Amino acid sequence: MTTVLFVVSAADHWTLKDGSQHPTGFWAEELAEPHRIFTEAGFELTLATPGGQVPVVDKLSLGLMGGTPAKREKIRAYLDKISGWLESPMRLDEVAESEFDLVFYPGGHGPMEDLAVDLVSGALLRNRLLSDRPLALLCHAPAAVLAAHDENGHNPFAGRTLTALSNVEERMNYFSWKARWLLETELKDAGINYQKATFPYWSHVVTDGNLYTGQNPQSSVELAELLVQKLKQQ
């Protein structure tokens, strides 16, 4: 059976440059839709978070920013359906990425708070990328690659091509004007070849060898379906 490790932020806030804490977590669609698609494909899914903390959903992702009322209700119902899975995460420092066919990071602003500086996650990402086995990150989740440097400061993601939420898309969030940093800018500064869609909030997926990335929540389904296709070919 194909196995998938979901690595999810445990953060429930994003610290802004004025010191305020914006409530956040994982983005509902970015976890629910890939989880559904992988489950329907017959994959076995495991959840891990920093410290084994139960992840929280960003309430904005279940409000107006999460799409149409019908879409939001569908995703809310799905999260309720998998609540037991969400409430029983493994500790990230106790999982071996090599045991999984795919490592998948959903986004939300949570990764900007914890995974961007989490060295356990960083080592996992570094090992996974260099193993040449499938690794996928969605929307804000590529913030986690900023912690993937080794003891000499080298980051293996430098020179690789990926996508993530763009600065234009981020600035559509009213609170982002108080952000300490923006993801697109930081990825470029880290030497990563960043790509984005022609228009904001269009689905956009980038593949670079074993690295798969999606730009925004709208990319959730396209990214997950591509991963199912690739994994079933193996």
UniProtKB/TrEMBL annotation:
GO BP terms: methylglyoxal catabolic process to D-lactate via S-lactoyl-glutathione
Top EC class of this enzyme: lyase
CC per GO annotation: cytoplasm
Pfam family, one: DJ-1_PfpI
One Gene Ontology molecular-function label: glyoxalase III activity
Presence of keyword Thylakoid: no
EC number of the protein: 4.2.1.130
Domain spans labelled DJ-1/PfpI: 29-229
Alphabetical UniProt keywords: Lyase, Stress response
Family classification: Belongs to the peptidase C56 family. HSP31-like subfamily.
Name of this chain's protein: Molecular chaperone Hsp31 and glyoxalase 3
Source organism of this protein record: Corynebacterium kalinowskii
